[in-house]
Fold this sequence. Notes:
Helix content is 19%, strand content 40%. The chain is of the alpha+beta class.
Amino acid sequence: MAGILTDVLDNAEDWARLGDGRKANLGHLYQWSGYFQWTRSFAILADQAPRRSNGITMRNTKLAFVSAILLMAAFSGASSAQDRVFNWLPANDESVRLDPANYHTGRTYRPNTPGANNHVDIKAEKPVTIFMTPADDWNQALQHPEAISRLRQVCLREHVVETTYVCELPVEPMTLVIRDERYSPESADHAVFSGLGLVLDPNNRVERAVGVGITGIEAVVAGRESAKRQFKAPNDVHIQYYRWDCVENCVQPEFQWTWQVKEKYQLTSFLKVYAGFTPDHDAAQVSIKIKSPVPMVVAMLPSDIAIQLHAKPELFETALEKNPCQQRGIQSMEFQCSFNQGDGPQSLIVVPEDTSRVPHKKAEIEMQFVKCIANCQMLESKR
C-alpha cells in the first residue's frame, strides 16, 4: 500500500527549494505533523504478485476490481489477530507570543487524499482566531498585506482560548494561521495586518520570529530581525501538534508470493507430483494455474498421501474424495486454496482425466504460495 510520499514544511519557499529526488524520499506527512492519512492495518505484503482472486478465474474472465478485493482478503487470516492500532500521538510543539492583531504562521499540511485532517491543541491567554488557508495565498499575503482580508479561511474558529482544533483539509497545501483578536491601531495602517508573532522556543529549527508591521517582515527576509522584541500587551499561545501513528502491534509479519512451480511439461498418463510447500501460518494462500490441451485433474494433497499414489494408483479417487483443494476436467484455469500450519506439507499433483488417450503435447503448470519473509517471530507469538 504505498501512498504518495510528502513532508510537512513551513512555507512554499521551503518546498520549492527541494529537488525532485528529495521530494520523492520524504516521509509520510502523518509521521511529522498532525496530518492523518488513512492506513490499512493488515499484515504487510512485501511483493506484488500478478492479479489473482480467492476463487476460480476462468481464462476469459476479467474481474480486476473483484480480484483486487479478494487479494486483500487472502491476507486477512494471517493478520486479523494482531491488527495495527493507530491513534493521535504528540508531535512537536511551539510557544508563540502575540501582540494585539498579530498573526502566527503555523504548520503547512500537504494532504494527498480527500478527507485528510489535522489535529492540534491550542491554548491562548487571550482569545484568538484560527483558520486554514492555501499556503500559496498566505505567502503572497505576507508580501502584500492588503490581501490578507481576502484570504480564503477554511475551518474558521473564532474567540478561542483553549481547543482541540481539527480540520478536514482540501487536497492542496494548507497553512495553519492564528490571529490575536484584540484591536490594534497599527492594523488600520497596514490593511488589518499589524505583524507576526514571535516563536519563543530558541531551539525551534524553523525561524518564525518577525518584527512588528511591514518593516518586521522585511527584516526577516533580510535576516535582521531584532533579538529583543518589546511586546506592548503579550498574548502567549501554546500549540501542540499531533501525528497519526501506530500505537499497538506496530511490527507485523511480512508476506510474499513465492514461485514453487512454473514449467511446461510433456503430457503423460502417469501421475505427476510436485514437491509443494509447508504452510508457515494459518490461512496460507496457494495459487495454481493450469493450461492444457486436454482435461486435467489438479489438486493439492498432503505430501505423504501424494507419494503413496505412485505405488498405489488405485487410491487416487479415494484420496481426492474429501479433498477441498482440487479441480477436475479443466484445461485453462487459475484457482486458489488456503491451508493452516497444522495441515503440514502439501504437494501438487497433476494428471490427465483420461489416461488412455494422451496426446504428444505439453501442458503449462504454475504454482505460487504465500510465505513469511520478515518478522516471522510474530507468528509464533500469536500461537
